[in-house]
Inverse folding.
């Protein structure tokens, strides 16, 4: 492809034999920077947010305490999505799986005797939230594995089913009594709430869960045959078949593990952050299930990079909160994902100067 | 551009070859990949009207050279001169504009379109108002002349591999190719049909076109080429006129001292035991289009016995083997492994019995290109439990790398960076370890050069002789069937139509049954 002729040389673009060195680092950084610049222009032109104000709010957010909270949540959901994405199973339903985690944890904390039992309550909440998230994801997994239904629309639409189940409960049997007239659930008992680390926005339990889940995810993906099967599901499912591996089960497991981690995120969201379910939930959710998609892609589906990507996306989120405009986050998400896609394609090409004849 | 009318007299008899001016000259082409020099100062000229074979063993650099000529890779050093002018070729479109068209071993056609539509699509010079009947008539005519029937109005997915390759080659000539690059494009065709293509290629050359035939099969080069250039380890060993050399000369150029290892003598017979490992009884299996393609096949393989199925591609061998491996549903009939019925029990079940499997189209069904050698080994359930002991896998990988002389930077290199032959070695070596009792294979050596192929056959035979493993393989290469088998079965139209002891079998008789 000839781009332009410059005196004696001409510039050509050729496909690379191997992807660019350090592409795993360069691609996300380049796409992030261009994405933010693009967002700045859009916000400036359309919503009249001066770029300087935007950049200063980003700069101020780098060390803001809010980021830490987002960092934990986004790391966890990022891990969840990377696992299924590695198997080329596109779980867009993190949000719904989180909601099922929220729903189950709320039930344990508010409506069972366990809710007031310290420690036991939290353990049961986390375990059942993981199971709920896993089962919710498994529905899409079964449809994809055995009927060949595309998991993208299914997981996406199931997010809304999850929202509306919660809304129906909260504006019905679960409506709280001590809510000063608001429609929402009561707060969960103290025994069920995660313990905030003083001076921060995060909880002890959340930190422990992040460490445990991170190690487990790392181990599963790299040191078990299940992890290898999921990775090869992403690169060549035909090989799985001739190796005698049950492909449908592998698809379902990829989604189920992903859903289980998302369910745990739901438990943390309830017990560590919101403590009660607001109404309508879809208008007040933190949307970690969607933001997590950005985290997963920026990490280039590499578990090692997930925390870094989560921190960066956390900064963007905090600056969006600082500017008191939720839409800013969506613009960041959209532009960065777009520039990411473009830079990823360009990373496969190289520019060369060739002497003209 | 060669118009359709111009090609009408394409099939005149081949005149005495008069090679003209060089059409393509490559000068000192060098290409390095990370860790290897794929091409080292390669110089070559392709003349007008000649069929020029580019011959070399696996990983010799043939494909790299052709990809440079076709604009897929850019050379690090060197010049390409076409019809006296120095050029840079940045992508295949530029190559096509210069009259260079490649046909590769994998057909590049759109499955859901008809043959005629596919051809029309490639020819933007036709304009959007050209009636499709023009293409239809041309395809019919050439198909008849070659002797391969194609209905131009059917969708491409219904075609056999041979028919697809014919469509590819027709398309290339219609694109106005002056230089036709055939990158193993006819290597994998059944022998009978390959011969039909030879005629077509020769006529193309007679009309002043040049053909570069990239192959690792000496016979293919000797059958049809005017000149042969041999590449070894990225260097040109020499260019010779076919008339002046013998097969042995070319072999020596290609393999050096290793050429002494090449032999087509039968490998020592293995004495089968009484015990039957695999028994197939009156098997009926459907093909991809829902029609029966295996129609009542019956066979048995004993411990220590190598059974080779000879047959022309498409007579049900592939489906028979897939059904035995549990990859295709058995509609009627039974399969027994050591007297236990395994019909429709699934691939995992069959493999767990100690069955190794070398599938057709290895890069799709045999390995995952993006994954490392180690990962491609560990994916077979036999080699690992739920928790993968990577140290153990690494040891096994390195053992196979040494034993089979697999050229790779390390055992953690993604398979896609290996040459085709080395990829095949990864697959074959892995499956030979998995084959504790039975090895099932389809064209086990087809991507391998002669030296490696014979080495692999010897290893398979050794497995049968020493470890008493039963082997059932199907091959389109009759030489392979004769060299490796203890028992030869002939498959035709979905049935086993003949059974011979390899020692007493006569080639003519088997060939007759194959085409009957």
């Amino acid at each position: 492809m000839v781009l332009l002729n410059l005196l004696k040389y001409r510039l050509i673009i050729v496909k690379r034999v191997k992807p660019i060195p350090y592409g795993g680092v360069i691609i996300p950084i380049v796409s992030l920077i261009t994405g933010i610049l693009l967002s700045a222009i859009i916000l400036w032109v359309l919503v009249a947010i001066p770029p300087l104000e935007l950049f200063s709010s980003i700069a101020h957010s780098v060390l803001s305490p809010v980021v830490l909270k987002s960092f934990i949540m986004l790391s966890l959901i990022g891990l969840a999505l990377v696992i299924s994405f590695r198997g080329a199973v596109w779980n867009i339903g993190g949000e719904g799986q989180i909601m099922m985690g929220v729903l189950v944890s709320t039930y344990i904390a508010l409506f069972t005797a366990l809710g007031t039992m310290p420690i036991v309550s939290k353990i049961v909440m986390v375990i059942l939230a993981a199971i709920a998230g896993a089962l919710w994801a498994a529905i899409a997994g079964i449809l994809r594995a055995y009927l060949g239904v595309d998991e993208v629309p299914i997981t996406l639409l199931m997010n809304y089913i999850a929202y509306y189940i919660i809304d129906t409960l909260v504006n019905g049997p679960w409506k709280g009594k001590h809510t000063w007239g608001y429609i929402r659930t009561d707060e969960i008992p103290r025994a069920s709430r995660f313990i905030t680390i003083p001076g921060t926005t995060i909880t002890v339990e959340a930190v422990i869960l992040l460490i445990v889940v991170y190690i487990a995810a790392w181990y599963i993906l790299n040191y078990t045959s299940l992890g290898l099967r999921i990775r090869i599901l992403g690169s060549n499912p035909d090989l799985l078949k001739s190796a005698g591996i049950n492909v449908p089960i592998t698809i379902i497991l990829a989604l189920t593990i992903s859903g289980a981690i998302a369910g745990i995120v739901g438990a943390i969201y309830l017990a560590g952050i919101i403590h009660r379910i607001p109404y309508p939930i879809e208008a007040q959710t933190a949307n970690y299930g969607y933001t997590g998609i950005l985290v997963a892609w920026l990490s280039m589906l590499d578990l090692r990079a997930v925390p870094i990507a989560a921190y960066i996306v956390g900064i963007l989120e905090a600056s969006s909160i600082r500017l008191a405009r939720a839409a800013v986050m969506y613009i960041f998400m959209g532009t960065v994902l777009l520039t990411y896609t473009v830079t990823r394609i360009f990373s496969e090409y190289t520019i060369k100067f060739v002497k003209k004849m | 551009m060669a118009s359709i009318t111009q090609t009408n007299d394409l099939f005149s008899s081949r005149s005495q070859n008069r090679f003209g001016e060089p059409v393509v000259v490559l000068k000192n082409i060098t290409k390095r990949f990370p860790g290897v020099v794929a091409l080292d100062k390669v110089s070559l000229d392709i003349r007008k009207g000649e069929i020029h074979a580019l011959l070399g063993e696996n990983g010799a650099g043939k494909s790299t050279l052709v990809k440079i000529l076709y604009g897929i890779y850019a050379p690090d050093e060197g010049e390409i001169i076409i019809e006296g002018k120095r050029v840079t070729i940045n992508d295949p479109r530029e190559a096509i504009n210069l009259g260079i068209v490649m046909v590769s071993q994998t057909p590049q056609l759109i499955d859901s379109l008809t043959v005629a539509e596919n051809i029309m699509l490639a020819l933007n010079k036709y304009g959007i108002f050209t009636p499709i009947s023009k293409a239809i008539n041309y395809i019919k005519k050439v198909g008849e002349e070659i002797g391969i029937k194609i209905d131009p109005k059917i969708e491409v997915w219904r075609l056999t591999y041979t028919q697809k390759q014919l469509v590819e080659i027709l398309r290339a000539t219609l694109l106005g190719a002056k230089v036709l690059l055939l990158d193993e494009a006819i290597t994998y065709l059944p022998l009978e049909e390959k011969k039909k293509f030879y005629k077509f290629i020769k006529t193309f050359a007679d009309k002043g076109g040049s053909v570069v035939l990239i192959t690792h099969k000496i016979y293919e080069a000797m059958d049809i080429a005017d000149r042969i250039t041999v590449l070894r380890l990225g260097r040109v060993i020499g260019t010779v006129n076919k008339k002046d050399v013998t097969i042995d000369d070319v072999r020596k150029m290609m393999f050096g001292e290793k050429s002494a290892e090449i032999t087509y003598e039968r490998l020592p017979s293995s004495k089968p035991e009484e015990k039957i490992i695999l028994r197939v009884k009156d098997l009926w299996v459907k093909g991809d289009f829902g029609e029966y393609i295996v129609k009542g096949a019956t066979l048995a393989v004993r411990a220590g016995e190598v059974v080779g199925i000879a047959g022309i591609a498409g007579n049900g061998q592939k489906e028979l083997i897939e059904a035995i491996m549990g990859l295709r549903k058995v509609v009627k009939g039974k399969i027994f492994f050591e007297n236990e019925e395994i019909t429709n029990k699934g691939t995992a079940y069959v493999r767990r019995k100690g069955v190794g499997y070398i599938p057709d189209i290895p890069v799709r069904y045999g390995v995952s290109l993006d994954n490392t050698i180690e990962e491609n080994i560990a994916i077979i359930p036999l080699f690992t439990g739920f928790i993968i002991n990577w140290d153990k896998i690494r040891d096994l990988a390195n053992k196979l790398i040494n034993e089979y002389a697999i050229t790779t930077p390390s055992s953690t290199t993604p398979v896609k960076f290996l040459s085709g032959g080395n990829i095949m070695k990864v697959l074959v070596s892995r499956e030979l370890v998995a084959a504790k009792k039975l090895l099932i294979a389809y064209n086990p050596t087809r991507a391998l050069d002669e030296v490696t192929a014979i080495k692999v056959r010897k290893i398979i035979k050794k497995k049968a002789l020493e470890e008493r493993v039963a082997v059932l393989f199907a091959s389109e290469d009759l030489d392979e069937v004769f060299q490796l088998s203890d028992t030869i079965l002939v498959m035709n139209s979905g049935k086993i139509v003949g059974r011979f002891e390899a020692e007493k079998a006569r080639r003519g008789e088997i060939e007759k049954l194959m085409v009957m």
User: Anything to note?
Assistant: Residues 275-351+470-516 of chain B form a domain with the Rossmann fold fold (CATH 3.40.50.300).
